[in-house]
Write the structure tokens for this entry.
Amino acid sequence: MTMQVERPKLTIWERTYLPQILHGLWLTLKHIPQRKFTRQYPEEKPPLHGAYRGAPTLVKDPEGRVKCVSCQLCEFVCPPKAIRITPRARPEDVPDANVEKEPEDFVIDMLRCIYCGYCEEVCPEEAIFLKQDFAIAGYTREELRFHKEKLLELGGVQPDSIWKWKFKGAPPLDAPGAPKREGAGRKG
Amino acid sequence: MALNVPTELEQHIDEVITHYPQQHKRAAVLWLLHLLQEHFGHLGKEQVEWTATKLGLQPINVWELITFYPMFTAKPRGKFHIKVCRTLSCELCGCGGILERLQRKLGVKPDENTSDGLFTISTVECLAACGTGPVMMVNDELFENLTPDKAEAIINRIKTTGKLEPQPLPPVLPAHPLEKRVLLANMSKPGYKGAIEDYIREGGYKALPKALGMKPEEIVAEVKNSGVRGRGGAGFPCGMKWSFLAKGAGQPIYLVCNADESEPGTFKDRQLLHYDPHQLIEGILVSCYAVGAHAAYIYIRGEMPYGAKILIRAIEEARARNFLGKNILRKGFDCEIFVHRGAGAYICGEETGLIESLEGKRAYPRIKPPFPAVVGLFGCPTVVNNVETLSNIPHIINNGAAWFRGMGVPGSTGTRLVCVSGPVKRPGYYEFEMGKLTMRQLIYDLCGGLQEGRQLKGVVPGGSSMPVLKADQIDVALDFESLRKAGTMAGSGGVIVLDDTVDIVQSTLNVAQFYAHESCGQCTPCREGTLWMEKMLHRVKHGHGRPEDVDLLWDVADNVDGKTICPLGEAVAWPVKAFVTKYRGEFEKACKKNGKEATDEHR
Amino acid sequence: MAEQTVKLTIDGKEVAAPKGMNLIEAAKLAGIEVPHYCYHPKLAVVGNCRMCLVDVGMPKMGLDKKPEIGPDSKPVIMFGPKLTIGCNTSVAEGMVVHTRSPKVIKAREGVMEFLLINHPLDCPICDQAGECRLQEFSVDYGKGQSRFVEEKVHKPKKTEIGPKIMLDDERCILCSRCVRFMRDVAGQDCLGFVNRGSYSTLTCYPGMEPNTNYDLNITDICPVGALTANDFRFKQRVWFLKETKSVCPNCATGCNTVLWSREGVVHRQTPRDNDAVNQCWMCDSGRLHYKFINDPHRITTPTVKSSAMGERLALTWPEATRQIAEKLMPLKGKGSTIAAIGTARATTEELFLFNKLMREILGAELVDCVPHVGEADKFLLDADRNPNTNGAKLTGVAGEPIGSRIPAIAEAIKSGKIKTLIVHGENVVKYGVTEELLAKLDLLVVIDTLPNKVTELAHYVLPGATFAEKRGTFINARNRLQRLNAAIPSPGIARPEWQTFAALLNELGGDGGYLTIEDVFADMARLLAPLAGLNLSKIGDLGVELKPATETKGEAKTESTAAAGAKT
Amino acid sequence: MIPLLLIHLIKIACVIGVMLGIVAYTVLAERKICAWMQDRIGPNRVGPFGLLQPVADGLKFIFKEDVLPHHVNKVYFTLAPMIAMIPALITIAVVPWGSQLVIPSVSHDPIPGVIANLNVGILFVFAISSLGVYGIVLAGWSSNSKYPFLGGIRSSAQMISYEVCLGLSVVPVFMQVGSLNLMKVVEYQAQHTWLGFTQPLSCFIFLVSAFAETNRLPFDLPEAEQELVGGYHTEYSSMKFAMFFLGEYAAMFMASALMATLFFGGWSLPFAPFNAPAQTLTVGLIHIGIFLAKVCGFLFFFIWVRWTIPRFRYDQLMTLGWKIFIPLTLLNILISGVVLAVITK
């Protein structure tokens, strides 16, 4: 159904456009002395909302351990397929070897990243955070493929309550002479 | 194979192997391990591999057993292994003090060896001498009615003499007027030592020739007619069990006597085995004839080494008089009885767990069906009966079913052995006609009431796996039906009395600890649920409870209840549920005690 | 003997199940899932996980031994006081089963919770994530939340169970599938549980680790991440992998497999259920045999040996085909100077085209395949390590017995009678055609996937495709026709050999009308009697049993020769 | 005494210098004012308040890569920006910047405040400035690309159309003044009234047409970024683009200068000593100042309008030019003639 819009009837004076033009001129003139909104960007950073989704980064825990265990869920969930993880086993001589896996490399292609934050949301280890960096720049494409070290540097330290490192080692049951755990469940 | 096994020991071992069918010689493994441990002190790699080779097994099969049965140890222990019972009855009588004193005295923690290599202290689960608690065993010797001072004196004595003196059997308790002793009748007579001469003098081995003169079906009918129900715990009619046997499949039939008396609070079989073994042997022989078995095994607890010796001696005595062996009493019936020692696992009291254990495996109860009566020991039809049940058989044959039915009440015929432990004046074993006494009479008349100044709080009527009765519920007749109606069960007849000084939370913890330790670990709910309950109760007991823990405890118990392969699930769920329901206030108080959040230490 | 069936009701659905079947399988017939861990259709029932608890009722029997009829004119059903495990309960007439009653749901939630309380929640690390029954069932049947605040039981995390398998005891739910498999199927009683209760721990006796050729199957049947294959450990998450149904080319058994690939790389091979061939198992040697697919040295492009330059020049396919055809064209009708060695590792289609090209178009007499023989075991591994010997025999490439003409070929090259040799996929140097002999040839054309002595000497090397890269069929030792599917693309411009043969046939004036593998199969089915009436889709995922090749081979050959002759 | 030629050269240098300086700063002013109108600050990075921005811009233009697309007609492509810029610079020659500068030490006669005191000054302006369109048309055509081509076409049509209005609109002015000499026009206004008051319609139409001639908004159809991507200078970069840029702003300056000269009294103010040619150097300089101030005022107006009024549609532009302004100017000439005839009688 078409609708006929009633156009306003203009007086001759109005039809010269002059009143509108004059009004416009007055309007723009009025703005000249008004307060400015400009933010002096590099010196003056915009106050970002806490949930701002900037560049995704990897974080370490306060003891300097890489939290990522390369479960590759972020790689799976990433809509533009910007994440690539190469997993590896952690060396057996580290004190918290119960966390058996870590990323050998962790690449986020910042040119592909759409800052959707799914990776942060999906991460079961709270190892990936979208920090507030939004000015990601580089001279080459390769430069913008952020590798593990770069991501960790950007991410810094993030405290958490993930229990995975806490491990009271059990004596290896590798020989018949190993102690038998009698008194099931008794503490100590 | 570097292991140096003396010829004598090896001969003994070879002899033991002949007790079991050739293709199932693996069944001898527990005996072998007992013998090797006695000789070497522990069971290390060499012993494991020697045993495996000897029995044609993989070493893992043997190692599985060593880690399953707590009596075996892979690392050397002290020359004197002190085992202090920590289970409910002993705890009620103060075993904690003894353990503490011994630890202080010897300067070691449980499962540590003293520096001189003489002593190791362990806590163990129930030594089946609850009436004389607290008890401890040093190597094979049982010390009863201990106090910390007595325990210390025993240690001092061992230290000074350097050896362990054999402990005499305590005297049999005299009968109370309200009792009616049938099974205990012989041993109550003065001068009765349990030897075959004594037994025959008191009219023993009369039932055997009589039975051999009857047709097996007649005996089964007689037993069925007598209405005797299993005394092990479940109370299944014995005659009916016998009639389920799958006969005629060309396979041998086995009879297994369940002497693995491990239900906390129960110590009746101990008396029957130690004081009157021939009564049992005659019962077994008659039963074997009735069910058509030519071999019977008595599976006796590992913690009753003396009982095993008595039984072996009794079997030899019986064999000497041709009550046993080939062509018994020239009636053309062959029957052998073998003693099989367990090694400390409550689960071996469950009949299929017992069969597995007897076959030389971890005592993992089997899924049913098939029932043992169809596929049992070594894949053959098998009857498993309790010591007390079998001990009743000669009396039924001698006096007839009608006589037996004349005792007790309909549905619960005959007499019952009941063991009372806990803070009563006269703990011990009593035999009376079923249903003719109430719990109140038992506690206040037979046992002389509670110790001075104590009030009754509750009573566990049939071993620790049965739901508790509160103090106002004790006017219940002691028979299967009445107890069932009261919401509990007659169980194994182990009555544990709880007085007003008892901390119910601690008692529940003790019970849960027992079942967590004794869970075989085969099926999920029991394996995980028991330990969870123990941990939770431990937390609550130590002041880190949360208000929701009371319901959680009940719900966890409920999730175990009835979901397991064997009745151990119920055995832990029932008492916990009953304690929580009936003494909810105490739990709520414990959970609120100081409102502290659970700390890492108790997580 | 007709199987007896009984009728029962599962969740209100009437099911007719064969007698003796258990409730898990019967529910599966009705499309109802009964969750389970310890139960495995090919292993003994132990019933220890308690996950398959269901509510089972039986009709109440009246005194006349007939079901009592209730007021609603249906039989009165008596339910037991306890739940029953489905894996150990056989179906019975009139049985009523509830798998989703509140009682069952609560029991499952309870069991799920129990299984998880001492299970480390390290799914992000665990390789099983994505194919873990514990994950799946805890989503489907779990409570979603744990009430467990206590310290978990800790057990050894990393135990090597032999060189191929890693065991994480904390993740183990003690279902004993592996114990039963090693004891009952693999025949090495080496795994067992130590300790008791919640501390029970799966282990093997030191120095007595599993060392059969079937160990890796326990990683398949492990419902959780306790047993993982070192070969696949931490390599890829399963959710990235594409599953392609395939057949193991390692021996004549032809175990049905699944190839797991991502972005053109095969990461593992696992067995696939086929009761007629391999049940659900496969041997480790076959399972780990996929690695050559990803070999960095794969031949990726056709090359010609340039005598002037002393090196190999890369060719395009049309160029290579044209050049080879040019050299072969004058030899048409001079079949006695040509010999060809095919491979029984090729698909039946390829062998069919090979035979057509060599025998019918070029007229070569000396055509054969190379036998590969190893030791058989009593379970799956066949002595014949060629996956398609029967195919080679059926198509006529292989001699009788296979390889019997190889010495004749060597002799003919030696005497100078044979000047042209075409080799497909075999390092013939190892089988009697020595380097010196190969050097004497005027023309040596080799089609292969990996470089070897023969490709070094060849005038023309054409890249082939591995079994993972092409479609086609194998005929196994028991004469079962089974289908391969392409999992990944070939490297470079390598392509399935049937395309190469089809292109050569086209150039040499044979019937070149093979555009798809279906065309090849259709022609084959037309000419080879045992395949009559079949096509690739009819073969299905599980294959079809063929009539013995020997019955029809003779006539098939004459017919095919006649047909081919008529066409040319 | 300095030779007359030298004086002329110095004058030319000064005028061009000042003009280019103003042009450069007009660019900055444009950005600043537009920013202010939009409540922004505008460029402030280069120098205090961004005052060195024009320098930076200039440097940037110089250092930018000079892209010469391969498809263009190289000769005309290079020529076009020059043609676009030069007319605006030449026409300033006839615009009087001041009355006269009396510097006895330099010259006996007062130095006139204009480079070339032509009698046909305004005709010269029209003649030369109409060449500017060639630059644009040439750029559009030689770019060999669709947007510049369209831009060029539009531009030629627009400029030709409005040149008519522009020419016709100022006829009454000269009718009143009686001379085409721009010096005379200013002097007339200094003595009488500013022609803006006597000829408001002329003034208005001239102003609007000047917008159209300089391709400024609202008549920037030739470069219309949205539809033509910059129009005729789409393909240009670096200094070539800068020349267009300069040309546009120089043209704007010219238009402002003409507005000031023709309608707003040029260097004069309606009171002594600014209503007569200067007799001292100071007053002479002040006259120049007055003139430049007026020019700046119009430059501001140009900028102001640009950031206020949106672009006209092409048909509106043409309608306005042909159907309204031309009849109006003709009418204006008629009326002016009649009125003048009546008054002089």
